[in-house]
Design brief:
This protein is an alpha+beta fold. It folds into 2 domains: 234 residues, Alpha-beta prism (UDP-n-acetylglucosamine1-carboxyvinyl-transferase, Chain); 210 residues, Enolpyruvate transferase domain (UDP-n-acetylglucosamine1-carboxyvinyl-transferase, Chain), CATH 3.65.10.10. It is 29% helix and 24% strand. It is built from 15 helices and 23 strands. A 4-stranded mixed beta sheet has the order 21-22-1-23, with helices on one face. The chain has a 4-stranded mixed beta sheet with strand order 2-14-16-15. Strand 21, helix 13 and strand 22 form a beta-alpha-beta unit. Helix 11 runs parallel beside helix 13. The chain binds ligand EPZ. The site of ligand EPZ has 26 residues, from helix 2, helix 6, helix 7 and helix 13.
């Protein structure tokens, strides 16, 4: 990294209420069974913003990213880019990025260990600099999260990749500066591997074909961002993506798509509190599987404008089975929140989690609130109950946190959620948005659990 680059400090503000590293000592207190009303604004997609930010490393000009959500994970990605020499300036939800002087090709371990998505920088660093040293991202609460598909794809493109002492050392072989196009078949449609290899291929020599590629909207968003920088990419959104390498990419001004998982979570907030609420902006096609499941349970989702939807609650929620799959299947990130809705539906539901091996940790906490769920491997059998009851609960991961918030909104009495650092990673201003819809919840300092507090105590 150039000396003057070291002086670069990230202008990306980490929201003061987010203590990125240490455990969050505050708790979220929710007074349940409040009907919601009105309209909620959906923020930019976390899983698009993170990879698009990594994608700015491909370009030596100024890039402007709009609709970037203010989240702990986004702030962490900003820190990682800054450590690599990128200049960042945030103004509201707009991020000005300049990666003209990326010198250091090593992402710092202490930052990578806090954000798995930081591994996304390996493809752009290799493509831009011909070398990259990125700490191996560890597993997380929901699974081992290997990166073998990323590594094997980069090797197919001519990179020598060694993993030593927990760091991935990669460089373009044979003294070449550029990766070589290749035909790559992904053993599974990995979102991250598709994104890493697509970014690497934009500056490679020749054509790269990714087969069995992930089709998630965030992959398409990244492809559209790269195309805005002048990349030649065809087929994003299908299982076959063809990238023709170019020698250089140019400046781009790009707006991130709305977050489909946040939108899905708010649809569930309406369904579980029997409330008619509106959401915008939303891309309905990104929520097709979730909307189909809600309709199958007796709720409905109507489109009032090209990017606005409204949840019509069901008088009686009917149980349904659920199986998570790569897009366009039912999204794994909606499994935990949707399970909460199923705990209150009439009948029994079988939920099958096929994407991650350990994504049922929310079950124990939901059962403490009166749910009746049995887990067998990657299956959860949910027997509907008439009521949930508020309780102190502990969040274990990002989407489990959302599941517990929904449970608190529906439960009798008060729910207190601890370990809020998970929630703050992926939902922008969640409390304020829910309060704006009439929910009664408040972030307070942790204290010994007392008996249920009456609603009027909410000051
Ligand atoms: C992305 O993770 C998302 N994260 C996840 O969202 C999301 O759940 C996931 O895609 C699936 O949609 C970001 O975009 C930052 P994968 P990613 O590679 O890329 C296996 C959230 O809550 N696999 O599609 O890590 C892997 O073990 C987060 O917002 C390999 O075996 O997901 C998993 O079983 C959670 N080898 C499956 O593929 C590899 O090299 C899907 O993983 C890569 C993945």
């Amino acid at each position: 990294m150039h000396p003057e680059d070291r002086a670069i400090t990230s202008h990306l503000s980490i929201p003061s209420s987010f203590a990125p590293a240490e455990e969050d000592k505050t708790v979220l207190r929710i007074w349940g069974r409040q009907t919601l009303q009105g309209q909620v604004k959906i923020s930019g997609a976390k899983n698009s913003a993170l990879v698009v930010m990594a994608g700015t490393l491909l370009c030596a000009d100024d890039c402007l990213l709009r609709n970037v959500p203010s989240l702990v994970d986004v702030a962490r990605m900003g820190e990682i880019l800054t450590a690599l020499g990128v200049k960042l300036k945030r103004q509201g939800n707009t991020l000005a990025v300049n990666a003209s002087h990326i010198g250091e090709s090593k992402a710092p371990y202490e930052l990578v260990s806090q954000l798995r998505a930081s591994f996304f920088v390996i493809g752009p660093l290799l493509a831009r600099l011909g070398a990259a040293r990125v700490p191996l991202p560890g597993g997380c609460a929901i699974g081992a999260r290997p990166v073998d598909l990323h590594v094997r794809g980069l090797q197919a493109m001519g990179a020598d990749v060694q993993i030593e002492h927990g760091t991935v050392h990669a460089y373009v072989k044979g003294g070449k500066r550029r990766l070589q196009g290749a035909r790559i078949y992904l053993d599974c449609p990995s979102v991250g591997a598709t994104e890493t290899l697509m970014m690497a291929a934009t500056l490679a020599e020749g054509e790269t074909i990714l087969e069995n590629a992930a089709q998630e909207p965030e992959v398409v968003d990244l492809a559209n961002f790269c195309r805005a920088m002048g990349a030649k990419i065809q087929g994003a959104g299908t299982n076959k993506i063809v990238i023709t390498g170019v020698s250089k990419l140019h400046a781009a001004d790009y707006s991130i798509i709305p977050d489909r998982i946040e939108a899905g979570t708010f649809l569930l907030a309406g369904a579980i509190t029997q409330s008619e609420i509106s959401l915008a902006p939303v891309i309905p096609d990104h929520l097709a599987a979730v909307i189909a499941k809600l309709r199958g349970m007796g709720a409905d989702v109507v489109t009032d404008a090209p990017n606005q939807v409204r949840l019509i609650p069901a008088q009686k929620l009917v149980a349904t089975d659920l199986k998570t799959l790569p897009f366009p299947g039912f999204p794994t990130d909606m499994q935990a929140p949707f399970m909460t809705l199923l705990t209150l539906s009439e009948g029994n539901s079988v939920i099958t989690e096929t994407v991650f091996e350990n994504r049922m940790q929310h079950v124990a906490e939901l059962n403490r609130m009166g749910a009746d769920i049995t887990v067998k491997g990657n299956l959860a059998i949910v027997r509907g109950v008439p009521r949930l009851s508020g309780a102190p609960v502990v969040a274990t991961d990002l989407r489990a946190s959302a599941a517990l918030v929904l449970a608190g909104l529906a439960a009798d009495g008060v729910t207190t959620i601890q370990q809020l650092q998970h929630l703050d990673r992926g939902y922008e201003n969640l409390e304020a948005k829910l309060q704006g819809l009439g929910a009664k919840l408040k972030r307070v300092e942790a204290e010994p659990e007392t008996a249920d507090l009456p609603v009027q105590s909410l000051v």
